[in-house]
Design a protein that fits this description.
It is a single chain. The protein is built from 13 helices and 11 strands. Helix 3 packs parallel to helix 4 and helix 7 (about 175-190) packs parallel to helix 11 (about 270-285). The protein has 2 domains: about 1-125 and about 305-320, Rossmann fold (3-Layer(aba) Sandwich); about 145-300, Glycogen Phosphorylase B (Rossmann fold). The chain is an alpha/beta fold. Strands 8-7-9-10-11 form a 5-stranded parallel sheet, sandwiched between helices. A 4-stranded parallel sheet has the order 3-4-5-6. The protein has a two-stranded parallel sheet with strand order 1-2.
């Protein structure tokens, strides 16, 4: 779109992995705020981040503002008379949605989204957020990461523990500290395990942690045997790449339910007992699912989300011009 004369300005919150990826990819950006913890901190953070982004955006005078869970961009765009787009896929993000939906002009969700945005603002697409960057037209995994880490394709499992610090993640944790240790030790019986965590890893399983450069994580995920973790986005990424997943949470996501029920690519698990049983079923191949074929069906059914987003931006841009 930049080749067609459109200008883009990236505004990002100060999160280390986000800034690292943008630097590696060579994008220019500005930071406008940070992530706060605790209920009071998050409340005050909304005000601080809103004001910071509004001041920066005012200098640009944008025609369109857009982001995922676009709380801050929607508020800034509304005050600056821009068309505001909120891309969301998380039904449980009730607090963020409550503050975002009233100010958004367009609310874009996967067609499997189970929430109820205002009908006059709601548009859907046949896909998931993750297909914007992991669709075969957009992503080809690099096998070089296997050689770097001394691994073989489809022999290792990736485990991811989340900090559970988002407002919609309250009370979602399924495994306690002891059960996390047992989980990794169980997986170790079937092959190499890689643990990735947003918070300190218990010392008995710290040896499984590998320092993975952020820009190589999806390469590593694509060649893994299975993903098990508390990150819903990573579970969806795994499914899109044809990797079976187990998502540990007592709150479901519509896009994961779509992958689970239509394509049998994963399972949303709510108890530790069910977690261990499902792991054994997948790794001992008592579940008769061809995950490669399932992924092919998914890609055939879904769209290239990036191309759809491009059409959406162009349509809105043409309507906003006199």
């Amino acid at each position: 779109m930049k080749k067609e004369g459109h200008e883009f300005h990236l505004m990002v919150k100060e999160r280390e992995n986000t800034l690292t990826l943008l630097d590696l990819l060579g994008f220019e950006y500005e930071t406008f705020g940070k992530t706060y913890s605790g209920k009071l901190g998050k409340g005050l953070g909304v005000i601080h981040n809103d004001l910071s982004l509004i001041n920066k955006a005012r200098k640009i005078d944008p025609d369109i503002t857009a982001s995922i869970a676009g709380l801050y961009s929607v508020h800034a765009g509304s005050l600056l008379d821009a068309t505001t787009i909120d891309f969301t896929d998380t039904e449980t993000a009730t607090f963020t949605n409550l503050l975002t939906f009233p100010c958004a002009d367009v609310i874009a969700t996967p067609d499997c989204y189970r929430g109820r945005p205002p009908k006059n603002k709601h548009v859907t697409y046949r896909g998931y957020h993750e297909l914007a960057y992991l669709h075969p037209k957009r992503f080809k995994p690099d096998r070089g990461v296997l050689k770097e880490l001394g691994l073989k394709s489809k022999e290792y499992t990736i485990v991811r523990f989340s900090a559970m610090d988002a407002s919609h993640q309250a009370d979602e944790r399924v495994l306690d500290r002891r059960e996390r240790i047992d989980l990794v030790r169980l997986l170790d019986e079937y092959g190499p395990v890689i643990v990735n965590s947003e918070e300190p890893i218990p010392s008995p399983i710290r040896e499984y942690e590998i320092d993975i450069p952020d820009h190589k994580f999806h390469d590593l995920l694509a060649f893994s045997r299975m993903y098990v973790g508390e990150g819903a986005t990573t579970a969806s990424e795994a499914g899109v790449l044809g990797v079976p997943w187990i998502y540990l949470s007592n709150k479901n996501r519509g896009y994961l339910e779509d992958q689970e029920l239509k394509y049998e690519l994963g399972a949303q698990i709510t108890t530790s007992h069910e977690t261990f049983f499902t792991i054994r079923s997948i790794l001992e191949e008592t579940i008769n699912v061809d995950f490669k074929a399932a992924r092919s069906r998914l890609i055939k059914d879904k769209i290239d989300v990036t191309s759809w987003m491009k059409r959406l931006f162009k349509m809105i841009d043409s309507k906003s011009k006199p």
